[in-house]
């Protein structure tokens, strides 16, 4: 890659880490389409490693606000969801799966805009965790289902709970990729070079979080979902052109 391409990725990673640390998700939604346009071979392990770094930092920072019980039920669905997502990637086209993700996210946004807010009960958490596992494995965008079910959490609780969920989920996904032999040295080098951008994004989020009321945080979460869908559509259209 050229210096310009490294700079573009670093800028996107900075913004994505800031978004992830402020809303609890968004790293993959913002960064994956851009990285895929520059060098698809870097995905998904590079981004998963960087997401793991930012979720660890946020989880530690917001540890007193974690919903451990809710996280546990969501992770119960995440594991089989990740396995199903792996199978779907092997059995179906990635483009087809990505269009399904866009349809699901847009439908969720429309329902949320009409006031639909599923309560974070056991069954809903397991279902959301499974959906996140499927979507995250197939397209690196697994945040929207969890944002929908946890949308009424306050700032620290939302960030901490989402980060704890994705911290464990990222570790599971990374272990699966490592076992499958799909983690390359090229991916590890990029993650190492981009680590400072992640830390900078996290530090920037600490200032931004002071101005995020519950209403603004919900708007940020849904806005991130919408932006992720738009970027994914752009990636799919350019990829098929």
TrEMBL record:
It is a multi-pass membrane protein. It is found in: Cell membrane. It comes from the Bacteria. Coiled coil: none annotated. The chain crosses the membrane at residues 41-60, 96-117, 162-181, 187-205, 217-238. Its main location: membrane. It holds the Pfam family TauE. GO terms for cellular component: plasma membrane. Keywords: Cell membrane, Membrane, Transmembrane, Transmembrane helix, Transport. Belongs to the 4-toluene sulfonate uptake permease (TSUP) (TC 2.A.102) family. This is Probable membrane transporter protein. It comes from Pseudarthrobacter enclensis.
